[in-house]
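Researcher: Good morning. I'm working through a list of sequences from a screen, and I'd like to move beyond sequence-only analysis. For each chain I'm collecting a predicted structure so we can compare shapes side by side. This is the next one on the list. No need for commentary yet; just the structure.
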Amino acid sequence: MSNKTGPTPPGPEALERHREAQALAYRCAETVGAGLEPGVTEREAARRMRGFLRDNGVEDFFHIPFAWFGERTAFRSLKGPWTPLHFFPTNKRLQEGMAYVLDCSPVVDGYVSDIGYAGVIGENRIFEALMRDLAQYRTLIPERIKAGDTLAEVYAAVDNLIAQQGYESRHKVYPGRVIGHQVGHMSQRRNMGRYAFGFGLRTLETLGREIVTEGIKGRSPLWAGGRASRHAPTPGLWAVEPHIGFRNVGVKFEELLVVTGDDAYWLDDDLPHVRRWQLEGAHA
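Model: Good morning. Structure tokens for this chain:
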């Protein structure tokens, strides 16, 4: 990596607070996922996530909780092209053999987290294959950053791996085609608990300031594949979410990546998808 100057990542205490917020988000997703049953709707799953987090002291969200079932995990609509409005949870009901994705981003005392959790009700061979192959992206992304790639080059490397595996990129459907974004500590309490288009007003205000500030320096807080991402990763915390799909099944993980001037590493390895891959490796 060549970025030796500029912003610095959060210190050890702040990183620990972000890690705690992320751990809470994953406990929420695991708990709600374990309680899902055929017939439950996406809206009910999202309400359960919000209730769990509220019960655990969360007062604000980077964005409201999302839940996607079935073909919607691959961002496909049965009524035409996928649009930003399709991201919001619907009355679609979960069925046996259906994949699901839960996404939540609690802000705990100003410390932001943003996670994605994939699961399935019953058995689904496509889901199992996708989840198994998803592990490669968790290795690829920090390796390419440490090798000196720009954000856009890492994005291209992810696209190449998706093509090699025979899958489709579904993060390209996200607004701005982003695979990640910077996160940090939000100290302002103004507009806490207020939302627009699913995102907290504090989130939109913070991102707006960062887009302007980082743009002046030739950087962007949004990680995509275009011109704005043709720079070394800015040191700090990034929420990264590779999302792959095949036919009507999509899977993803989203977790926090720490970037320093000469290193990149995931904030925490004690996460559901990592434990799943470690167990599969042990069995193999």
